[in-house]
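Kindly inspect what follows.
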Amino acid sequence: MEWILLITAAIALTLLRAHFKEQDRQRQLEAAWAQQQARADSLMCYFRQVDDARAFPDVPLSLNMQAGEFGVMEAGATLYGYRKQSYNVGGAVRVVRGVYVGGSQRISSDALTPLAGGALNLTNRRAVFLSPQKTISFKLSDVMSLEALDTSTMVLHTAKRTAPLIFSIDGCDAGLVVLLIKLFSAGTFDSRFLPDGVRIQPKKVQEEVVVSVSQA
């Protein structure tokens, strides 16, 4: 009889632990979902404010602006890139004096490495990364694909570069930068003031924020 009680108690303890573990998992999922929704709401809020104000924020940039070009944002950023790194694996083992078996092998691999720290400047026509080590400029119309990997990391490919550009952005959501580049790459806006009848409409599509431009 005693062993039956022990087995029953062990089963009950296992089930209780599984229950608490599942509760923790559910809480983590709910917290992640709430964080994702708050981020999406924040991104949409920016574009709703632009639509309500009928103008993009006035952002002075230390760039030589062309006609019809205006500043959109400036944020601290670190440029990353892939660089070859080599290291040795294995090693020789001495069997007797003067006699070794085996040897080391040199292996090379691509490693993500910070290349320069500076500021990412975005206008309605181009993006310019300024730093003491490196300056990079590209037209938004040349961007072929881009993605925000998380709230601070953006990866993009341009038509004139074989390697991707990878930025870690400070003080600004990388998702907002991605949405702004997508919005301005079409070349719709030549002034920070919205044309009459033009509406900017953000919305969620499968938990992602999408920004569309419509003409009333």
Q: What stands out?
A: The radius of gyration is 27 Å. The mean pLDDT is 85. Residues 53 and 193 are 9 Å apart (CA to CA).
